[in-house]
Structures are given as C-alpha cells and as structure tokens.
Amino acid sequence: VLLQAYGGGLVQAGESLRLSCGASVTIFGSNAMGWYRQDPGKQRELVATITTGGITNYADSVKDRFTISRDSARNTVHLQMNSLKPEDTGTYYCNLKGMRGYTYHYWGQGTLVTVSS
C-alpha cells in the first residue's frame, strides 16, 4: 500500500491549508487514517486521526482549528488546517493503521508545511 500525501506549502500565520492523502489500493478492515507531524530532532507526534467509523482524535494544540475527514470510497483522508500558527510548521506524515485485529501499518512520504509569522 502506498500513501500519497500532498497539499503542503508555505503560508502566513492565520491562513489555511488542506492536506490530502490517498491510498493506492482499497483498504479493508477497521482502521484509522490520519496525520502526524515531525520536527527536526523530535519524535513524530499525533496531529489528527479518523477511524473507519468516523471517530476523530486531535492533538490539543490543533483542536478547533483543524478538521480531519475521510472519503472511504476513494481511500483518502483530508486535513483542513485553518488559523495556522508558526508552531504548526513541520513535516506532516500520512498514516494508516489497522484496528481490531487488522495489523497493517503504513506511512506516507512527508509533506512540508511552513507557516511564517
């Protein structure tokens, strides 16, 4: 399974970006798709995830600003990022992880988001 991420870029603080990630094949079973961010020298950390059942999970720092959604028919997940802050800067990685007995786990290539002050 390949996860193709796109939508990163350079924006100013207060502006918006939309990240998208698509899987190369149909995904079977319960799973969570989402985004993690990694800054240089730091561990990858959760930004937001959404399950096949529509349950979402957000990092506290992005609640009320970011919205994650998924189109299961197209095997894609989107992250609408509003009111961006400089601290949102980082490389965002798409993630797909099986749940409830499904053990697959995939990462996409990173897409860079840079927010200038």
Gyration radius, in Å: 14 Å
Distance between the termini: 37 Å
How is the biggest beta sheet arranged?
6 strands, mixed
Strand segment tally: 10
Total count of helical runs of at least 4 residues: 0
What class, by secondary structure content? mainly beta
As an assembly, this protein is single chain
Helix content: under 10%
Shape: globular
Contiguous low-pLDDT stretches (5 residues minimum) are none
Overall average pLDDT: 94
Please provide the ordered H/E string of secondary-structure elements.
Answer: EEEEEEEEEE
Strand order, biggest sheet?
2-10-9-4-5-6
**Proportion of β residues?**
over 45%
Task: Give a short overview.
The chain is mainly β and 117 residues long.
Structure in words:
- This protein has 117 residues and is mostly beta strands.
- The chain contains no helices and 10 strands.
- The strands form 2 sheets. A 6-stranded mixed β-sheet has the order 2-10-9-4-5-6, with no helix packed on it. Strands 1-3-8-7 form a 4-stranded antiparallel β-sheet, with no helix packed on it.
- The termini are far apart.
Spell out the blueprint of helices and strands:
Layout: E1 3-6, E2 9-12, E3 17-23, E4 31-38, E5 45-51, E6 56-58, E7 66-71, E8 76-81, E9 90-98, E10 105-116
Parallel strand pairs: 2-10
Antiparallel strand pairs: 1-3, 3-8, 4-5, 4-9, 5-6, 7-8, 9-10
